[in-house]
Write a structure and sequence with these properties.
211 residues, 59% helix, four-stranded mixed sheet, 10 helices, alpha+beta
Length: 211
């Protein structure tokens, strides 16, 4: 059985979606670096960085990083549809997943934790830093929509790893508001992904205001 360490409103939601899509049994352990408890200590034993999501595989080995976990599951369960079977489409899916991690996920870390990068910064400098990171995040999502959000390559009716990760990471940093205003066609496709039963069920557990 798989064991997934994660918490509400976090990137572990994308891994839950993927595990549900793969139809494999898994155990959820509520854990994160910012809440004390048994879950945090259990997470520390398998991932000293206390990052979520962290996935313990059935053989006891540990896998971290959302994109790595999604790619692993897509390869391990090819019938799940997490990764396209066509080699050309699969190559673009891998590109899109790494794009999200490198550009969008990274910008969220800057917005949420400015003092990690500017220790001792005053409120004015922090605000400027966050504003710049948010502008970069919005630019990255707009470019993502242009590159990967065409209906011909977007699996809104049968979400794969790219669509699931996008459905989660766009919930942070006011990205959805920006996409709705500046990339409305892509935003409409994203809403169709949200309506998929697997995505919707997991999202409702994480973002309870959407229930």
């Amino acid at each position: 059985m798989y064991t997934l360490f994660g918490t509400e409103n976090s990137g572990s939601a994308a891994i839950e979606m993927a595990l549900e899509q793969c139809a494999v049994p898994y155990e959820l352990v509520n854990a994160c670096s910012w809440e004390e408890g048994a879950g945090k200590e259990a997470l520390r034993k398998v991932n000293p960085l206390l990052q979520v999501p962290t996935l313990v595989l059935p053989d006891g080995s540990v896998l971290t990083e959302s994109v790595a976990i999604l790619i692993y599951l897509g390869l391990e369960f090819p019938g799940s549809g997490l990764l396209p079977k066509d080699s050309g489409l699969r190559a673009q899916a891998l590109r899109a997943l790494v794009y999200i991690a490198s550009n969008c996920y990274a910008a969220i870390g800057l917005i949420d934790y400015p003092l990690r990068w500017l220790p001792g910064a005053d409120d004015v400098l922090q605000a400027r830093f966050e504003s710049g990171a948010r502008a970069r995040l919005n630019e990255s999502w707009a470019t993502f929509a242009d590159l990967f959000g065409r209906p011909s390559g977007w699996q809104q009716g049968a979400p794969g790893a790219v669509e699931m990760l996008t459905a989660v990471v766009t919930r942070w940093g006011e990205a959805r508001e920006h996409l709705q205003a500046f990339r409305p066609d892509f935003y409409a496709l994203l809403m169709q992904v949200d309506a998929h039963p697997v995505v919707k069920t997991v999202a409702q557990r994480h973002w309870r205001e959407d229930t």
